[in-house]
Amino acid sequence: MKIAMGCDPNAEAFKQQLIPFVESLGHEVTDFGSDDPIYANVAIEVAEAVAAKKYDRGILFCGTGIGVMLAANKVKGAYAAVVGDVYSAQRACLSNNCNIITIGSQVTGNKKAEVMIEAYLKETYVYNERSGKKVDRILEYEREH
Predict the structure, then answer these.
(1) Which pLDDT tens digit goes with each residue over 22-44?
(2) Above 90 in pLDDT, residue 129?
């Protein structure tokens, strides 16, 4: 898969440690940078690229993962979830069809981040009776507004 990654300046070292890991899983990574102290700018740039299907998925980092998640979710077609455990990383894809995950560099260790990223990237959303209608409603609302 083609993966877009970005972060705020505080998470740069964290991201740089994780890029080779994601590449070792067989994915192509593009680093969207981290120089802009306004993390919303890089989050929006990654989200736009993922929503436009230039990339299969996105991974964003900031201190908590919350700020970049909020910014990414403002882009139509971008569906970002902050993850803090493996189950949430899996369900972001399986239950919610998220095309971006966000992780907090100041609240998550590197090994935990690796396991969450690997779990997320292994999953593929398949429409199903339980989650499909919920995802449909989100998409319907997005189209209406």
Answers:
(1) 999 999 999 999 889 999 999 99
(2) no
Contact 97, 79 (CB under 8 A): yes
Catalytic residue list? 62
At CA 135, angle to CA 80 and CA 116, rounded to 5?
A: 40
| pTM reported for the whole predicted model | 0.95
What is the rounded distance in angstroms from the CA atom of residue 87 to the CA atom of residue 96?
13
Structure tokens at 34: 């981290």
User: In angstroms, how far is the first alpha carbon of the chain from the final one?
Assistant: 31
Q: Once rounded to an integer, what is the mean pLDDT over residues 7-30?
A: 97
For residues 4 and 45, give the distance between their C-alpha atoms in angstroms, rounded to a whole number. 9
Dihedral pair phi/psi, residue 31, rounded to 5°: -90, 115
Pairing of strands 100-104, 28-31: unpaired
